[in-house]
Amino acid sequence: MRLLAFMLILSLVAGCNGDSEDTILPKSNWVAGEYLPSRNFANQCVNRRFNADYQDLFGTYADENNWIRSWSHETYLWYNELPDIDPSSIQDPKDYFNQMKTTAKTSNGRHKDRFHYTQNTEDYNQYAQTGVSAGYGFTYILSQSIPPRRAIIIYSQIGSPAAKKGIRRGAEIISIDGENLIDGDPTVLNAGLSPSKLGETHTFVIKDLNSDTNRSVILQSSIITENPIHTHGIIEKNNTKIGYLALNTFATATAEKHLVDAITNLKQNQIDELVLDLRYNGGGYLAISAQLSTMIAGIEASNQTFTELIYNDKKSAENRAYAFPTQTFGIAESYSSGIPLPTLDLSRVYIISSNNTASASESLINGLRGIDFEVILIGGSTTGKPYGSLPEENCGTTYSTIQFKGVNTKGFGDYADGFIPSLQDNGTDQVQGCVVYEDIKHYLGDTNEKMLATAIYHIENGNCPTNTVQARAKSSQPFNHVHGEIIRRYPTTGFILQ
To answer: Which of 88, 97, 193, 422 could potentially form a cystine with 28 if both were Cys, beta carbons 3.0 to 4.6 Å apart?
Structure first.
């Protein structure tokens, strides 16, 4: 259990709705305030699975809801803030689970728990281990789930159906299967954005960046294998070698090997500085985040604590501190454990951030700052997720709920409103850096792209360009009006609402 906690902290995603059926539920024998152990209800399923992997028992929706109720009360970080709802009163376990969370808010007025979600277990397992999912190969950002909506492509996977149709960063989705994205039928839009099976075809109308005309493309869903590293390379400026690495996720086990290979390459090129682009990285395996921290800091991280995970008072025996790792874990079955990690032994790191930088990405920032390693933040405030989960499977659904909080070696973990780029570092939530707004007019890795250009400027001059914080006022910045959440490959439905 402890190892699993360190291995996994899931990314920020929106919740999704499950299927509903007209089912008559038996009484749950619910007594308010009384909780039987969750194991009493485990694997008692409406849709029983009986195969080599699962041997479920026949059950009811009330049984599944009882498991959710007891498991949440046992493991939820703020279990004393949970509602107590009769398990027989809601026929869809996913709907029941969506209510099993605190309604408390942060000091900035945001919901404290914005990270509660479910996913089909097979999809979850496949993506976590291999990075494989079904889709078109593009990732987009959605302004909001209700009209008026706007969606912009932020990147496409090389070789994907989207890339083959020329859909690149900055393209806007205008309509899907005849429904305008801005205010169209959410059922049609969701079906197109999230194909339920391979080989589905849907018609998209796209407006490319810097184009005045729309074009129609037919996309067919296929198997997509995500490369967690979008791009990396070397930038030479005034005899300074700057490494650039755009890492879009920690959420697939394959990221471990990809990062070891990339850092090895940067080490061989003897870089002087590193710009780590985490603007779209919503988190994933905490262990891989810790490994990357070690590879950046090197000897400075030796024998020091990366993070301590703190559970609720029922689970306090599980609390444990984890050191900066020195070897591979072999998280993916195809990769070996025990290989010494390459290290860059830098004195600082530049991190490009946004409101979509979350979870394991924020843990990297917090862990490094805990050992007084210099972090310079370029971009926007991060999500604010110092929490993690140990996803649990029951009856074909994997449930993720907040179960622990992470703090660095100094005991700091109170960044529920995110890390904020600031003129001065206050040692807590304000991190030295520059506020810069998204620039979709340039591809990731282009030295003219505003966030990367600002990092390079700071490396050369030791301060922020004078115009960085003025970008908000410029109406010519098209992305200012699409400041929303990245829609990731999980969960796979429920993005767009009426």
So the answer is: 88
Q: If you count DSSP H runs as helices and E runs as strands, how many of each does the chain have, helices first?
A: 10, 25
Distance, in Å, from the CA atom of 277 to the CA atom of 262, rounded to the nearest integer, reads: 14
- pLDDT band at 468; cut points 50, 70, 90: low
Residue carrying the six token digits 């729309």: 214
Chain centroid to Cα 87, Å, comes to 30
What are 427-448's pLDDT values in tens digits? 999 999 999 998 999 999 999 9
DSSP assignments along 154-218, one per residue: EEE-TTSHHHHTT--TT-EEEEETTEETTTS-HHHHHHHHS-SSTT-EEEEEEE-TT-SS-EEEE
In angstroms, the Cα distances linking 495 to 39, 143, 338, 371, 492 are 32, 11, 40, 39, 8
CB 455 within 8 A of CB 245: no
Q: How many residues are present in the chain?
A: 498
- The domain 229-389+404-473 is placed in CATH, from the list 3.90.226.10, 1.10.1040.50, 3.40.640.10, 3.60.150.10, at 3.90.226.10
CATH number for the domain whose boundaries are 132-225+483-487: 2.30.42.10
Annotate 292-317 with three-state secondary structure.
HHHHHHHHHHCCCEEEEEEECCCCHH
Contact 125, 327 (CB under 8 A): no
pTM: 0.86
